[in-house]
Amino acid sequence: MKVSYQWLNHYLPLEQNGITPTELAEKIARTSVDINDVYSPQNGLQKVVVGLVESIKDHPQSDHLHIAQVKVAEDTTVQIVCGAPNLVAGKKVITALAGAKLADGTKIKKSKLRGEESNGMLCALQEIGFTDKVAPKAYEEGLWYLPDDAEVGAPVFSYLGMDDTIIDTDVTPNRGDMLSIYGNVNDLAAIYALDNGFTSHEVVENGTERTADLIKATVADQQLAPTYKLRVIKNVHIQDSPLWLQIRLWNAGIRPINNVVDVTNYILVKYGQPLHSFDYDRLTSHEIKVRHAAEGEQFTTLDGEEQTLASQDILVCDGDRPAALAGTMGGQDTKVTDQTVNVALEAAIFDPVMVRKQARRLDLHSESSMRFERGINPETVEVALNEAAYWLSELAGGEVTKGIVTATEEAVQVTSIELSTKRVNAVLGLSLSQADLVNLFDRLRFASQALDDDRLLVQVPARRWDIAIKADLYEEITRLYGYDNIPSTLPTGTQTLGGLNERQRFLRASRHVMQGVGLNQAISYSLLTAEQAAQFQVNPQAGQPMLLDYPMSSDHVATRMNIVAGLLIDIAYNVARQVDNVALYEQGRVFLPVAGQERPTEEEHIAGAVTGSLTAASWNQADDDNQVDFFTVKGIVERYLRNMAVEGEISYQANHDRADLHPGRCADVLLDGQVVGYIGQVHPTVAKQYRVPVTYVFELNLEPLLQADKRDKHYQLISKYPAITRDVALLVDQKVTNAQIVTAIKEVGGPYLKAVHLFDLYKGNFLPANKKSLAYTLTYQADQGTLTEDQVNEAFDKVIAHLKDQVQAEIR
């Protein structure tokens, strides 16, 4: 809410007590609600003064420009070229002198417009910072006329309320009382212990007719409108509101319309009580009914849009004809126009939940609906209605008929809460006396009664509907006493050492490893479509994903059972923006349904997806040489498992049955024979669905890895002695795998064997049928001395003999 400092100062002695707007805003932020901004509308403007248009003539070189002689000081008249259609002589206007600075940063200079000298600029409200939302519609395309008593040459700011300071508060849902000047005055009077000078105006019923003879009101169900009241004001004169009222409105962010509508908006800001005005003569039956809308019922709102209503929407009807969407927006057929003579004025409390639902569904959020959603003070419904009638009588010359028509009226409820002084001090860490508490409640205007030396009965008025239990009163005591005044104490209790537990260290190290191998971290949604959520499961037998009862969108309806799908969506986003090389990983939870249970099992997974190349293209390497393949991703997984020191046998087994992966380029990752993940290329048909190119992915279930034994991490010095290598080429059956050969070599390799490297694979016409050739380099090195040829040859011969025996290898 935009709160005017000058308006607050009208009711509270803020300036008198040296409370500046900045200090006031800081105090509100520390004790009541958040602050979005503190600003003065005149900020950034310079040399903008009151000018008197003495004469005008047409520009000789233009059919729309005029040459005006404008008096800008007692003894100074300047010539200004202006194109405003409503420029007339004798009016006082907003004048930006040469050298002036406007709201958008524009600097006004002396210039010539089509040959005629112009020494300034005549301004519309928008040009000095008013937005289209608040600038009066009648002056949208023309100049704004200042009051006749404005002093020529004086700055314009005080005449337009621009010398005020606006405190833009961010009101939380529980403090709906702060959406009004009345609520802010009450709160600040309590915070600063100031005299509360808030005043209301009593209506004078100067009409001769009885309201009950002119209009009737019924409510179908009191839940729809716990309070509903009407007044009738006759013979009003529709015209512009006085400038003071327009200033109050546009500083509150509301556009002035006419005196009738402006009065209802003024009361809305002052009391937080939305009002609605009907053109009495456009009501056909003069019998107001509040009811639920029929499903699919049509209604045209003030903005000219036809709305299709639902059965839970609330309508205010003229007989059976809809006249307003309760608490949200009025109707086109009964709105106040320039021809309105008689006005029916509504003040009500509507069901906040229903108002919010209809406003959200129809996208018709307004100042009124915002207040109805957060709550209305039942104490001031009639007060606000009466003051609105007073101002319509004063400003529009209306005749207020006798009495109020009341369809429903909810009794004002006072909340009684019993407090213990000892308990208050124990909770807050203070040493307040019962008299101190009474004083604080008096500042809040909460009646209190001492039951004994310790107990206090506090009566909370209905205007503070956010207070219901003792803890709420503890908060009120604390914020009035001052959070800064609460003594600081060290916490007591058993001290514990901080740090990460074993699981947290493992998960954090996982991210470091993935980043070390060149993958970038991604964070994707935990909600996907049902099809995406069920794809790429580590354990495909987990079943179908859990569906949300009330999803926010059709793309986020099910809890994910994999992470890969989210990464593919991220890759598609990048590829669509010409980013061809993408390497992503994500660590997070998946949600696996359990039969017979409402809550799913949560597992920690890590997944990666890579497309394109992991390294940049070079002058001596073709792009195709750098493309990621199955073995690149397998190497990433192997490095991850090695760095995470997972004990146990890691193996990889081809799997042709994963429907979402390429049947010839897919393998399960096994730990001691248990499947803990997979590696593979996304199936071409699935890749087409996600709109990604050839992409390789992996996903690991971290739960068994977390539970697995870990190798001791220790370091050895790098040997300073030379290494010796031996190469061997083997002819084996095509069914024999590289893993079998490497295992066989390491079984008898001896203590000096440091590495086994496959450097060649050959399959061709020069080999026997069903045979292949693999060539390996074996590296031998001793830690404590230089190896001899005899030592290496002996170890190498054992390997050759073992290979012949284990895999029936022929040495080439």
TrEMBL record:
The enzyme's E.C. designation: 6.1.1.20
Could you tell me the Gene Ontology terms of the biological process aspect for this record?
phenylalanyl-tRNA aminoacylation
Specify whether Transmembrane helix is a keyword of the entry.
no
Residue limits of the TRNA-binding domain? 42-157
Domain B5 positions: 412-488
Name the domain of life: Bacteria
Subcellular location(s): the record lists: Cytoplasm
* Gene Ontology molecular function terms on file: ATP binding; catalytic activity, acting on a protein; magnesium ion binding; phenylalanine-tRNA ligase activity; transferase activity; tRNA binding
> Would the keyword Nucleus turn up in this protein's UniProt record?
no
Sequence ranges assigned to domain FDX-ACB in this UniProt record: 719-812
The entry's free-text remark on the cofactor is: Binds 2 magnesium ions per tetramer.
Question: Pfam families in the record, alphabetically?
Answer: B3_4, B5, FDX-ACB, tRNA_bind, tRNA_synthFbeta
Ordered alphabetically, the record's keywords are: Aminoacyl-tRNA synthetase, ATP-binding, Cytoplasm, Ligase, Magnesium, Metal-binding, Nucleotide-binding, Protein biosynthesis, RNA-binding, tRNA-binding
GO cellular component terms, semicolon-separated: cytoplasm
Q: Which InterPro entries match?
A: aa-tRNA-synth_II/BPL/LPL, B3/B4_tRNA-bd, DNA-bd_dom_put_sf, Fdx_antiC-bd, Fdx_antiC-bd_sf, NA-bd_OB-fold, Phe-tRNA-ligase_IIc_bsu, Phe-tRNA-ligase_IIc_bsu_bact
Show the catalytic activity.
Answer: tRNA(Phe) + L-phenylalanine + ATP = L-phenylalanyl-tRNA(Phe) + AMP + diphosphate + H(+)
Q: Which family does it belong to?
A: Belongs to the phenylalanyl-tRNA synthetase beta subunit family. Type 1 subfamily.
What is said about its interaction partners and assembly? Answer: Tetramer of two alpha and two beta subunits.
Name this protein carries in UniProt? Phenylalanine--tRNA ligase beta subunit
Q: What is the lineage of its organism?
A: Bacteria, Bacillati, Bacillota, Bacilli, Lactobacillales
The record's gene field reads pheT
